[in-house]
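Quick one:
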Amino acid sequence: MSNLVKKFGLPRLIILIFLLSTYIIAPFVGISIKAAFSDTMVRFGMNAILVLSLMPMIESGAGLNFGMPLGVEAGLLGSLISLQLELTGFLGFVVAILIGIVFACIFGWAYGTVLNKVKGGEMMIATYIGFSSVAFMCIMWLVLPFTKADMIWAYGGSGLRTTISVESYWKDVLNNIFGSISNFIPVGEIIFFIILTFIMWIFFRTRAGLSMSAVGKNEKFAQATGIDADRGRKKSVIISTVLAAIGIVVYQQSFGFIQLYLAPFNMAFPAIAAILIGGASVNKVTVWHVVIGTFLFQGILTMTPTVVNAIIKTDMSETIRIIVSNGMILYALTRKGGGARG
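Output:
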């Protein structure tokens, strides 16, 4: 038993027990278990790909991707262009992803080039790049030539709104693929995540993926065997940026809105907290760390405010959500060896 606890990680076990206890308490305070689990799975589907996007950079030794907002901005550009072209349904969703991938490749290449110049300080520089990209795009959202009436400010006739609805374009296109069952579990989103996860699993078993992992484990040894370390790291940054762009489009189709300006500012922190709580470290990660961490983080974030509100009979959901999410982020970021260790 002690070996199992050690392998799974005591912190993760405590978080899991706490999450299960909220599900047990829920029926006694008037909360439907079905609705509660459904909310958790919806949030899991919305955020899982964003967490998955951290995996390539960790594997290559480039550290935790605090520059994720750069990939998010690429996905936002793809989504906005799709809306400007008035594309709806699955076509609009796919076009948003494809255009986002193009921008993500460009942004990722530049981002990777910078990180190769600052080896040893990647996470600090990545944080700066992420924050500065959000600030720069705040200006661009005001000057880019978008003209659709439901996207721009009504009183000025130019500049994008802070929040833009995708309700009449491609909201829930993944969620509704399997009909009524998607009202309970977002099957389409989860299958899409599984497909991307499988592609990642396959990739890290190819020559390029193994080379990338070798650079992350021991860069000098990898170079001695003829592997181009800088090239491998740059590839990992591009892949991470592309996955972040895809992830934000999936997030939007479930959420129903495109959020601009300062909305992407802190998106990296919950994703990083989730993968660390799942058991990853700054140089070691698996797909299971992504899955377990996302479920635990989003489960706690969903259930704690709901159960506490029902117990105290007062709406403090947003306050509790901020306390819980920031508490888990702070805890996860202090786990140098990953969330699996105390």
